[in-house]
Design brief:
Blueprint: H1 7-14, E1 20-27, E2 37-45, H2 48-54
Antiparallel strand pairs: 1-2
Pfam families: RRM_1
InterPro entries: Nucleotide-bd_a/b_plait_sf (IPR012677), RBD_domain_sf (IPR035979), RRM_dom (IPR000504)
GO molecular function, one term: RNA binding
């Protein structure tokens, strides 16, 4: 992920692989980067098959 990634585009990208059940996009809460994305997110899909494709 880049610092310029946004939630909408990431969810749209992930939905191509299956239904996104839960999506947590994390932001810096304090400091000089406050309000900017941390550069990672957590995703849960509806089925194990879709989820298994992303575990490396």
């Amino acid at each position: 992920m880049t610092p310029f990634s946004d939630r909408y585009h990431l969810v749209k990208l992930l939905e191509k692989f299956g239904h996104v059940k839960q999506f947590d996009f994390l932001f810096h809460k304090s400091g000089p980067l406050e309000g900017q994305p941390r550069g990672y997110c957590f995703v849960n899909f509806n089925t194990r098959e879709v989820h298994a494709r992303f575990i490396v």
